[in-house]
Amino acid sequence: MSTPRTTNPVPSWIENPYPRLEHSLVEFPAKHILLVTINRPEFMNCLPVEATIELGALWKWYDAEPELRCAVFTGAGEKAFCAGMDLKQRLDIIKTNNVAHEYPQGGFGGMTNRTGKKPIIIACNGHAHGGGFEIVLNSDVIFASPNATFCLPEVLRGVSALAGALPRAMLLFGNHRTMDLILTGRRMPAKEALEWGLLKEIVPQERLLERAIAYAQEVAANSPDAVIISRLGAREVWETGVSRATMRGQELYAEAMLRSKNAAEGLAAYREKRNPKWLPSYL
After folding, report:
1. What is the rounded CA–CA span in Å between residue 230 and residue 202?
2. Domain total of the chain
3. Count of CB atoms within 10 A of residue 139's CB?
4. In a domain, 232, yes or no
Protein backbone atom coordinates (compact mmCIF):
# COMPACT_ATOMS: atom_id res chain seq x y z
CA MET A 1 0.00 0.00 0.00
CA SER A 2 1.18 3.51 -0.77
CA THR A 3 1.67 6.02 2.02
CA PRO A 4 -0.29 9.28 1.63
CA ARG A 5 2.08 12.14 0.89
CA THR A 6 2.23 15.42 2.72
CA THR A 7 2.32 18.81 1.07
CA ASN A 8 5.90 19.97 0.49
CA PRO A 9 7.14 23.55 0.96
CA VAL A 10 6.20 26.15 -1.61
CA PRO A 11 9.27 26.92 -3.78
CA SER A 12 10.59 30.44 -4.17
CA TRP A 13 9.55 30.61 -7.85
CA ILE A 14 5.85 30.53 -6.89
CA GLU A 15 4.67 34.14 -6.71
CA ASN A 16 1.33 33.82 -4.91
CA PRO A 17 0.13 31.38 -2.24
CA TYR A 18 -2.27 28.74 -3.46
CA PRO A 19 -5.82 28.61 -2.00
CA ARG A 20 -6.46 26.74 1.22
CA LEU A 21 -7.19 23.05 0.68
CA GLU A 22 -8.73 20.61 3.12
CA HIS A 23 -9.40 17.66 0.84
CA SER A 24 -6.44 17.71 -1.55
CA LEU A 25 -2.65 18.01 -1.42
CA VAL A 26 -0.43 20.30 -3.47
CA GLU A 27 3.20 19.56 -4.39
CA PHE A 28 5.79 20.95 -6.79
CA PRO A 29 7.80 17.91 -7.96
CA ALA A 30 9.83 19.88 -10.52
CA LYS A 31 10.23 23.41 -11.82
CA HIS A 32 7.06 24.57 -13.58
CA ILE A 33 5.08 21.47 -12.49
CA LEU A 34 2.06 21.38 -10.16
CA LEU A 35 0.99 18.07 -8.62
CA VAL A 36 -2.50 17.87 -7.09
CA THR A 37 -3.67 14.80 -5.17
CA ILE A 38 -7.20 14.18 -3.94
CA ASN A 39 -6.52 13.07 -0.38
CA ARG A 40 -9.59 11.06 0.64
CA PRO A 41 -8.45 7.46 0.01
CA GLU A 42 -10.70 6.10 2.77
CA PHE A 43 -13.67 7.41 0.73
CA MET A 44 -12.32 6.29 -2.67
CA ASN A 45 -11.40 9.95 -3.22
CA CYS A 46 -15.03 10.96 -3.78
CA LEU A 47 -15.55 14.71 -3.58
CA PRO A 48 -17.95 16.53 -1.29
CA VAL A 49 -19.17 19.91 -2.51
CA GLU A 50 -16.52 21.69 -0.42
CA ALA A 51 -13.71 19.80 -2.19
CA THR A 52 -15.03 20.79 -5.59
CA ILE A 53 -15.15 24.45 -4.57
CA GLU A 54 -11.55 24.22 -3.32
CA LEU A 55 -10.36 22.66 -6.58
CA GLY A 56 -12.18 25.25 -8.65
CA ALA A 57 -10.21 27.97 -6.88
CA LEU A 58 -6.97 26.01 -7.19
CA TRP A 59 -7.20 25.57 -10.97
CA LYS A 60 -7.83 29.29 -11.39
CA TRP A 61 -4.74 29.97 -9.27
CA TYR A 62 -2.75 27.51 -11.40
CA ASP A 63 -3.74 29.26 -14.62
CA ALA A 64 -2.71 32.63 -13.16
CA GLU A 65 0.63 31.58 -11.64
CA PRO A 66 3.33 32.66 -14.15
CA GLU A 67 5.92 29.93 -13.58
CA LEU A 68 3.51 26.98 -13.61
CA ARG A 69 3.23 25.37 -17.03
CA CYS A 70 1.70 21.92 -16.57
CA ALA A 71 -0.29 20.14 -13.84
CA VAL A 72 -0.65 16.48 -12.87
CA PHE A 73 -3.85 15.41 -11.12
CA THR A 74 -4.13 12.11 -9.21
CA GLY A 75 -5.71 10.46 -6.19
CA ALA A 76 -4.23 9.13 -2.96
CA GLY A 77 -3.88 5.37 -2.50
CA GLU A 78 -4.03 2.62 -5.10
CA LYS A 79 -7.77 2.00 -5.49
CA ALA A 80 -9.35 5.11 -6.93
CA PHE A 81 -8.51 8.31 -8.73
CA CYS A 82 -11.96 9.67 -7.89
CA ALA A 83 -15.17 7.73 -7.29
CA GLY A 84 -17.20 10.80 -8.16
CA MET A 85 -19.54 12.88 -6.08
CA ASP A 86 -20.04 12.18 -2.38
CA LEU A 87 -23.46 10.63 -2.95
CA LYS A 88 -24.28 10.43 0.74
CA GLN A 89 -23.80 14.18 1.03
CA ARG A 90 -25.84 14.69 -2.15
CA LEU A 91 -28.74 12.75 -0.63
CA ASP A 92 -28.58 14.95 2.46
CA ILE A 93 -28.68 18.06 0.23
CA ILE A 94 -31.72 16.71 -1.61
CA LYS A 95 -33.50 16.08 1.69
CA THR A 96 -33.00 19.71 2.70
CA ASN A 97 -34.67 20.75 -0.60
CA ASN A 98 -31.59 22.82 -1.49
CA VAL A 99 -31.04 21.30 -4.92
CA ALA A 100 -29.00 24.23 -6.27
CA HIS A 101 -25.70 23.86 -4.42
CA GLU A 102 -23.29 26.05 -6.34
CA TYR A 103 -20.32 24.45 -8.06
CA PRO A 104 -17.49 26.59 -9.42
CA GLN A 105 -17.57 27.71 -13.04
CA GLY A 106 -15.36 24.79 -14.04
CA GLY A 107 -17.90 22.26 -12.76
CA PHE A 108 -17.30 19.15 -10.65
CA GLY A 109 -13.75 19.06 -9.27
CA GLY A 110 -13.33 22.45 -10.92
CA MET A 111 -12.67 20.50 -14.12
CA THR A 112 -15.66 18.87 -15.81
CA ASN A 113 -16.56 22.02 -17.75
CA ARG A 114 -13.23 23.81 -17.41
CA THR A 115 -11.64 25.43 -20.41
CA GLY A 116 -8.78 27.06 -18.52
CA LYS A 117 -5.46 28.04 -20.06
CA LYS A 118 -2.94 25.39 -19.09
CA PRO A 119 -2.92 21.61 -19.52
CA ILE A 120 -3.86 19.11 -16.81
CA ILE A 121 -2.47 15.57 -17.08
CA ILE A 122 -4.32 12.77 -15.27
CA ALA A 123 -2.48 9.98 -13.45
CA CYS A 124 -5.50 7.71 -12.97
CA ASN A 125 -4.40 5.42 -10.17
CA GLY A 126 -7.59 3.34 -9.96
CA HIS A 127 -11.32 3.76 -10.44
CA ALA A 128 -12.63 6.89 -12.16
CA HIS A 129 -16.36 6.66 -11.73
CA GLY A 130 -19.20 9.14 -12.11
CA GLY A 131 -17.82 12.62 -11.64
CA GLY A 132 -14.31 11.14 -11.55
CA PHE A 133 -14.78 9.90 -15.11
CA GLU A 134 -16.27 13.27 -16.07
CA ILE A 135 -13.04 14.92 -14.82
CA VAL A 136 -10.96 12.48 -16.87
CA LEU A 137 -12.99 13.12 -20.02
CA ASN A 138 -12.22 16.85 -19.89
CA SER A 139 -8.53 16.53 -19.04
CA ASP A 140 -5.78 16.86 -21.64
CA VAL A 141 -3.73 13.63 -21.51
CA ILE A 142 -4.44 10.51 -19.42
CA PHE A 143 -2.14 7.86 -18.00
CA ALA A 144 -3.69 5.00 -16.02
CA SER A 145 -2.67 2.07 -13.86
CA PRO A 146 -3.75 -1.45 -14.94
CA ASN A 147 -6.45 -1.59 -12.25
CA ALA A 148 -8.15 1.60 -13.45
CA THR A 149 -11.77 1.38 -14.52
CA PHE A 150 -14.02 4.03 -16.00
CA CYS A 151 -17.78 4.25 -15.74
CA LEU A 152 -20.80 6.50 -15.53
CA PRO A 153 -22.98 4.61 -13.03
CA GLU A 154 -25.57 7.38 -12.69
CA VAL A 155 -28.41 5.34 -14.23
CA LEU A 156 -27.90 2.83 -11.42
CA ARG A 157 -28.43 5.62 -8.86
CA GLY A 158 -31.44 7.34 -10.39
CA VAL A 159 -29.51 10.36 -11.70
CA SER A 160 -27.59 11.40 -14.84
CA ALA A 161 -24.06 12.55 -15.69
CA LEU A 162 -24.91 16.16 -16.55
CA ALA A 163 -21.56 17.76 -15.70
CA GLY A 164 -20.23 17.39 -19.25
CA ALA A 165 -19.56 13.68 -19.70
CA LEU A 166 -22.45 12.87 -22.02
CA PRO A 167 -21.59 15.23 -24.91
CA ARG A 168 -17.84 14.77 -24.38
CA ALA A 169 -18.15 10.97 -24.55
CA MET A 170 -20.24 11.30 -27.71
CA LEU A 171 -17.52 13.36 -29.39
CA LEU A 172 -14.72 11.07 -28.18
CA PHE A 173 -16.26 7.62 -28.63
CA GLY A 174 -19.17 8.02 -31.05
CA ASN A 175 -22.83 7.25 -30.60
CA HIS A 176 -22.93 3.50 -30.07
CA ARG A 177 -19.98 3.20 -27.72
CA THR A 178 -21.30 6.13 -25.69
CA MET A 179 -24.78 4.63 -25.44
CA ASP A 180 -23.25 1.34 -24.32
CA LEU A 181 -21.54 3.13 -21.42
CA ILE A 182 -24.26 5.52 -20.32
CA LEU A 183 -27.31 3.25 -20.63
CA THR A 184 -25.79 0.35 -18.66
CA GLY A 185 -23.46 2.09 -16.18
CA ARG A 186 -20.94 -0.68 -16.85
CA ARG A 187 -17.25 -0.45 -15.97
CA MET A 188 -14.77 -0.05 -18.78
CA PRO A 189 -11.36 -1.58 -17.92
CA ALA A 190 -8.11 0.23 -18.68
CA LYS A 191 -7.27 -2.01 -21.64
CA GLU A 192 -10.56 -1.17 -23.34
CA ALA A 193 -10.09 2.53 -22.56
CA LEU A 194 -6.70 2.36 -24.28
CA GLU A 195 -8.26 0.67 -27.32
CA TRP A 196 -10.93 3.38 -27.47
CA GLY A 197 -8.23 6.08 -27.53
CA LEU A 198 -9.00 7.53 -24.11
CA LEU A 199 -5.63 6.66 -22.55
CA LYS A 200 -2.17 7.54 -23.74
CA GLU A 201 -0.54 4.70 -21.77
CA ILE A 202 -1.20 2.07 -19.14
CA VAL A 203 1.62 2.27 -16.59
CA PRO A 204 2.32 0.00 -13.58
CA GLN A 205 0.99 1.54 -10.38
CA GLU A 206 4.45 1.99 -8.87
CA ARG A 207 5.64 4.03 -11.87
CA LEU A 208 2.43 5.85 -12.77
CA LEU A 209 3.09 9.15 -11.03
CA GLU A 210 6.72 9.23 -12.15
CA ARG A 211 5.65 8.73 -15.77
CA ALA A 212 2.95 11.42 -15.62
CA ILE A 213 5.35 13.93 -14.05
CA ALA A 214 8.03 13.17 -16.66
CA TYR A 215 5.46 13.74 -19.38
CA ALA A 216 4.40 17.03 -17.76
CA GLN A 217 8.06 18.08 -17.85
CA GLU A 218 8.11 17.39 -21.60
CA VAL A 219 5.17 19.75 -22.00
CA ALA A 220 6.73 22.34 -19.68
CA ALA A 221 9.96 22.35 -21.72
CA ASN A 222 8.07 23.94 -24.62
CA SER A 223 7.10 27.58 -25.05
CA PRO A 224 4.44 28.24 -22.37
CA ASP A 225 2.68 30.73 -24.63
CA ALA A 226 2.65 28.31 -27.54
CA VAL A 227 1.32 25.51 -25.32
CA ILE A 228 -1.52 27.71 -24.05
CA ILE A 229 -2.46 28.97 -27.52
CA SER A 230 -2.17 25.55 -29.17
CA ARG A 231 -4.30 23.93 -26.48
CA LEU A 232 -7.01 26.56 -26.70
CA GLY A 233 -6.93 26.55 -30.50
CA ALA A 234 -7.43 22.79 -30.60
CA ARG A 235 -10.24 22.91 -28.03
CA GLU A 236 -12.18 25.71 -29.71
CA VAL A 237 -14.62 23.54 -31.64
CA TRP A 238 -14.83 21.14 -28.68
CA GLU A 239 -15.77 23.94 -26.27
CA THR A 240 -18.28 25.61 -28.56
CA GLY A 241 -20.28 22.41 -28.88
CA VAL A 242 -19.72 20.68 -25.55
CA SER A 243 -20.18 23.66 -23.26
CA ARG A 244 -23.51 24.61 -24.80
CA ALA A 245 -24.68 21.00 -24.70
CA THR A 246 -23.72 20.79 -21.03
CA MET A 247 -25.59 24.01 -20.22
CA ARG A 248 -28.67 22.78 -22.09
CA GLY A 249 -28.58 19.48 -20.22
CA GLN A 250 -28.41 21.27 -16.89
CA GLU A 251 -31.07 23.84 -17.85
CA LEU A 252 -33.55 21.29 -19.16
CA TYR A 253 -33.03 18.24 -16.99
CA ALA A 254 -30.92 18.71 -13.84
CA GLU A 255 -33.47 20.13 -11.42
CA ALA A 256 -36.25 17.79 -12.51
CA MET A 257 -33.88 14.84 -12.15
CA LEU A 258 -32.66 15.78 -8.68
CA ARG A 259 -36.19 16.49 -7.41
CA SER A 260 -37.51 13.16 -8.66
CA LYS A 261 -38.44 10.42 -6.24
CA ASN A 262 -36.23 8.00 -8.17
CA ALA A 263 -33.15 10.16 -7.49
CA ALA A 264 -33.84 10.06 -3.76
CA GLU A 265 -34.50 6.31 -3.95
CA GLY A 266 -31.33 5.59 -5.93
CA LEU A 267 -29.12 7.56 -3.55
CA ALA A 268 -30.81 6.09 -0.48
CA ALA A 269 -30.31 2.56 -1.83
CA TYR A 270 -26.64 3.32 -2.41
CA ARG A 271 -26.24 4.55 1.17
CA GLU A 272 -28.16 1.56 2.59
CA LYS A 273 -26.29 -0.94 0.35
CA ARG A 274 -29.44 -2.42 -1.18
CA ASN A 275 -31.00 -2.65 -4.62
CA PRO A 276 -33.14 0.36 -5.53
CA LYS A 277 -36.91 0.02 -5.89
CA TRP A 278 -37.63 2.24 -8.86
CA LEU A 279 -40.92 4.14 -9.17
CA PRO A 280 -42.80 5.04 -12.38
CA SER A 281 -41.34 8.05 -14.19
CA TYR A 282 -43.35 11.28 -14.53
CA LEU A 283 -40.62 13.44 -16.07
Report:
1. 26
2. 1
3. 17
4. yes
What CATH number is given to the structural domain containing 265?
3.90.226.10
Domain contains 214: no
Kindly name the residue from 134, 192, 210, 255 that is annotated as catalytic: 134
Nearest of 140, 117, 16 to residue 69 by alpha carbon: 117
Q: Do 123 and 73 meet the contact criterion of CB atoms below 8 Å apart?
A: yes
Active site residue 236: no
Q: In the chain, what percentage of residues exceed pLDDT 70?
A: 89
**H or E stretch covering 223:** none
Q: How far apart are alpha carbons 221 and 218 in whole angstroms?
A: 5
Q: What is the C-alpha separation between 257 and 154, in angstroms, rounded? A: 11
Q: Of 3-17, 55-69, 124-138, where does mean pLDDT reach its minimum?
A: 3-17
Specify whether 78 is catalytic: no
Catalytic one of 15, 22, 154, 206: 154
pLDDT in tens, 51-95: 999 999 999 999 999 999 999 999 999 999 999 886 665 555 555
β-strands 24-30, 33-38 pairing: antiparallel
Structural domain contains residue 4: no
Task: Find the domain containing 239 and state its range.
Answer: 24-209+220-271
Name the average pLDDT for the chain. Answer: 89
Q: Examine residue 9 and state whether it is found in any structural domain, yes or no.
A: no
